[in-house]
Amino acid sequence: MKERAIAVLGSGNGGLNFAGDLTLAGHEVRLFELPQFKGSLQPVLDAGGIELEGLCRTGFAKPAVITTDIGEALQGADVVLVAVPAYGHGEFARICAPHLSSGQIVVLNPGYTLGAIEFSNLLIREGADIDVTICETISLLYATRKYVPNRVFCEGVKVDMPIAAFPSERTESALEILDPIYRQDDGKRGRLFPLDNVLLAALTNGNPVLHVPMMLLKAVDVELGEEPYWKCKDSTAIKLMRRDLDREMIRLQIALGFEPLSHIYVHDTLMYPSWAPVIDTTDPECDADLPEWVQPKNQPGLYAAGQGHNFLQMRYLTEDIPYALVGMSNLGELLNVPTPVIDAAITLASTVTGEDYWQTGRTLRELGMAHFSKEELLRYVTTGRAR
Which of 151, 171, 201 represents a domain boundary (last residue)? Predict the structure, then answer.
């Protein structure tokens, strides 16, 4: 495996897991966080690295660079992994614009709905005269949590991660670089599963299918601080809402001419096949097998129930609604495909949070795509040109 210089942007769950795992794989990793969030990075600086346990590479990882200087992080990097929530993509595009170099590959982990296009548009608006390839995955590669400021526990690693480049005619060349980085355990192939384009990537993002129904249908309990996964596994109402969200996403795929990929297929066959190991850290019966600092009873903060948190402010709504479902609804309008359950979810989420996601979400109008015909839309995501 050729060692690569990799900039990892973001020091949250995904960023620390990427930085630690890829450092232990032998790559030169530069871990970056925005200066205003240096407090998140400080424990890693103080400790000199990241402690990883779970199902990724484990041990103490010392990235080559830990910094709040974006120029230091990006200079000479082959690959730039952006591991921040979708609502951070715009800020990271703006600060990266003066420092990116032609030939670099940027990967949004994940891109949500057309994040790669938003990132590309912002680079252009910021005057970045460079030729970079921007890719987006449909999910974070790791199921992971940063439970303690410089400690990460990885519950699982996706087996096949769907990805697409913008424009999609660059996906194959990008994977020649990325596949050896996202290497399968057997070393024979990568973990990346190429999709037709970023439209299909958007419409196979299972996060809103998994997260939104449970958040909305048990909103009162969630608002009062109950962790949203509790009580949901056997709920018929939640299963039915997930089914219909998935059906609407599939109808949009078909309208665009894709061979449809259901959420169930992507989740259970590609990312988490039955043979892939996964650790459920929320299961009390697992406590004896978990490090003390991972056990649910010892968790302060966001992932601990009963701590006075309003979980309606979690990204399961604040990200999945405006940065996933709003764009899908827009696609439905453009393609004349009804999306009543998606639309209802957006409206209800706007109501219970007091945030008008129809106005604040990532829309096709914001991306400069609302006036496209279907043919222009497909040409644009393939070549970067609508005409």
Answer: 201
